[in-house]
Amino acid sequence: MAIDETGLTKGLVRKLNALRKSVGDDLAEEVFARWLEREAALQARSKPNPVAMKIVEALAGFENDSKFNLGNYRYTLRRAKGKGASGFIAYKNERADKAPTPSSEVEELSR
To answer: Which end of the chain, C or N, has fewer beta carbons within 10 A?
Structure first.
């Protein structure tokens, strides 16, 4: 049974080649095919992240708003930490070669 490698990612091809080197071509392809089926079944059963779904629902109202722009590097959301802190903090992500953003650009979001 020959496996079509054109549809596989680079990592999957490496896994298949490692199996071929360790257990031989025929057995490796059989084991790899079984592993792929099992992985596909696990992916189909996995649940979406409930927190991510809530964020998507909260931002759904801005879907068609042309003035709402997340920029090229997007934002990072974190829970506020510290004494008396509540809500969330949003950081604008910058390119790695640029200086870090000053604390004045940090926006605190209320729940």
So the answer is: C
